[in-house]
Write a structure and sequence with these properties.
Elements (H helix, E strand, L loop, with lengths): L1 E7 L6 H6 L6 E7 L3 H15 L20
Length: 71
């Protein structure tokens, strides 16, 4: 299962962003997904290879185990 949410960022270029090397970008996409734990490593590897997520200013990818979560 996967869902994409489109948004617009509000970050403006300033000295603080320059210090950390952030590049202001208005167009944003957030993709959420539920998948088995053995598939999450493969997904992050694909994002690194195909979209260079392991390089600065390309995106953020992370996983969270929800097996033990409760509310």
């Amino acid at each position: 299962m996967a869902a994409a949410i489109y948004g617009k960022g509000s970050v403006k270029a300033n000295s603080f962003a320059d210090i950390f090397g952030f590049v202001p970008e208005e167009n944003k996409v957030i993709i959420t997904s539920l998948l088995l734990s053995d598939k999450s490593d493969a997904l992050i590897e694909t994002l690194n290879e195909e979209f260079s997520f392991n390089k600065p200013n390309t995106g953020i990818a992370f996983s969270v185990c929800i097996e033990g979560l409760s509310y």
